[in-house]
Amino acid sequence: MKSFDPSSMHVRDLHSLLLGAIGPRPIALASTISKEGVPNLSPFSFFNVFSANPPILIFSPARRGADNTTKHTYENIKEVPEVVINIVNYDITHQMVLSSANFEKGINEIEKVGFTSLDSDLIKPKRIKESPVQFECTVNQVIELGDGPAAGNLIFAEVLKIHVHENILNEQNKIDQQKIKLVGRMGGDTYVNAFGDCLYDIKRPNDDNIGFDHLPKDIRLSKILSGNDLALLANESSIPDETDVNEYKLLDLSSLFMQHEENAPLLEIALHNHAKDLISKGNINDAWKTLLAFNN
Ligand SMILES: Cc1cc2nc3c(=O)[nH]c(=O)nc-3n(C[C@H](O)[C@H](O)[C@H](O)COP(=O)(O)O)c2cc1C
Known about the structure:
With about 300 residues, the chain is an alpha+beta fold. It has helices spanning about 10-20, 70-80, 95-100, 110, 215-220, 225-235, 240-250, 255-260, 265-280, 285-295, and strands spanning about 30-35, 40-45, 45-50, 55-60, 80-85, 115-120, 125-130, 135-145, 155-165, 180-185, 190-195.
């Protein structure tokens, strides 16, 4: 393992190490307005939701690494403490990237990148019609984290109103995770599409799960089962009893036992492989019976 000391690194390398490791990051397309009324639009992936009550989103327009100047988004917010955070999805990725160009202050960036602006209901900055979810926010706090190049500026944006395109909502008014087609920012110029085959569900853990500490040693130290496999086994509330294991051994595992009758190590490997296969199909109970059958 290689270790790095942030205090002795060039800020450019530190920035790249941090962003390479922390991802995918959601992208806020922040719409602000100057005191003269000129709209500004820029993407920020130092962004997330931090509270639902009150509803608080935070993003960070950092000081520019090259010349330590502040970004127009930050300056606008200091002048007019309001922002529309438009969520970025696949359909607007390239226009979003275009909006990150260093346009001169005073340029209407919404027009420049071809988005359609909509009036907000409660604040001055415009909404982006093409964005699937638009949060009208008031800025109730700004925390400057430093005064050197790349220092972050945390913008605490309290959500006043949320606009959602109806075509991404299901009947319960929840956002359909396949339909919203979210994208995330990774390290460098890499992005990820968070839809299609890459989405999967993991159920919440059982509060009375048996835990890794109660896994039998031969299972916990398996060369075949991964940490993910073991976690699924450890999430069970109880393990099958001896009668169930014996019945399963007789009905479902007899061919494996016969095949490796003379060779216990090979039998153990075969049983662990079989259990792994069952786990991958979500059949955790039979996986447990398979593993326990070895010592029964
Ligand atoms: C996907 C993406 C994410 C970005 N995230 C950030 C960020 O979190 N913080 C930041 O300071 N700059 C970020 N940038 C760069 C700014 O968008 C860029 O500096 C922009 O020109 C700032 O515009 P402004 O001066 O009009 O505010 C990001 C750029 C892209 C394309």
